[in-house]
Design goal:
Elements (H helix, E strand, L loop, with lengths): L3 H27 L12 H11 L9 H14 L6 H10 L11 H15 L4 H13 L10 H11 L6 H14 L5 H17 L7 H6 L1 H16 L1
Helix pairs in contact: 1-2, 1-4, 3-4, 3-7, 4-6, 4-7, 5-6, 9-11
Length: 229
């Protein structure tokens, strides 16, 4: 189970590091040692995000998913150019989530664009976080987009979970889409699975390719077989 207090600490640590890096860059670019500006307490921002991730319509896209993505980013951190924007993007990537809406990622990115400057991040850092959030629409990072590769792999790592964990994931997804009739859900879910299996690769980091590609394809194939039996 997710630990909200631990998540608050992770948010604060990441935000503090990101603020310091933004300030250091700004000072060096001007050749000055400007004082660090006063910035808001990170806790209210964490509490707002934790509340969003705890909304009642969520069954899979919950605090447990957020924790898992952050954990996977930590595993893949060496593959990123800068893992902290990736961590912040993980916090925002499903911060707005309504199962019956198609613009969740865009609305989540816009939330990041509003909140992060107010929280003390530079425009450049904010833009990178928002870019990464929008990338989760396709999970198709460019070959040289190391930050994007880490976020996309971390978000899709559930596909490579052990069979019992994967079964719980698929059941939770079905619960989120309980408003969709069974036949329509099976058809739509099967289409998503086929699209994933048709991709030349599901994962882009060396670790993801090595550790997750095979198990993920096995899980996807097994689920598709069950859906179409």
């Amino acid at each position: 189970m997710a630990d909200p207090d631990a998540l608050r600490t992770r948010w604060s640590d990441t935000l503090h590091r990101s603020r310091s890096r933004s300030h250091s860059y700004s000072s060096s670019s001007r050749g000055t040692e400007a004082p660090v500006p006063s910035v808001p307490d990170p806790t209210p921002y964490a509490d707002n995000l934790l509340a969003r991730w705890s909304e009642p319509q969520r069954r899979y896209h919950t605090l447990d998913h957020l924790t898992a993505v952050l954990d996977h980013v930590d595993v893949l951190a060496e593959a990123a150019d800068d893992p902290d924007p990736v961590r912040l993007a993980a916090w925002f990537h499903d911060a707005v989530y309504l199962p019956d809406r198609s613009e969740n990622e865009e609305r989540s990115a816009r939330l990041a664009e509003r909140a992060l400057p107010e929280a003390g991040l530079s425009a450049a850092a904010t833009a990178e976080v928002a870019r990464l959030v929008r990338l989760t629409v396709t999970h198709a990072p460019a070959g040289d987009d190391r930050n994007g590769q880490v976020l996309c792999d971390a978000d899709l790592a559930i596909l490579a979970a052990p069979s019992d964990v994967y079964a719980a994931y698929t059941a939770a997804v079905r619960e989120e889409y309980a408003f969709v009739p069974p036949d329509a859900f099976r058809t739509g879910r099967a289409a998503v699975l086929r699209q994933l299996l048709d991709l030349p690769r599901l994962f882009h980091t060396p670790y993801g390719t090595r550790e997750w590609e095979g198990p993920a394809r096995h899980n996807l194939t097994s689920e598709l077989t069950l859906l179409t039996a």
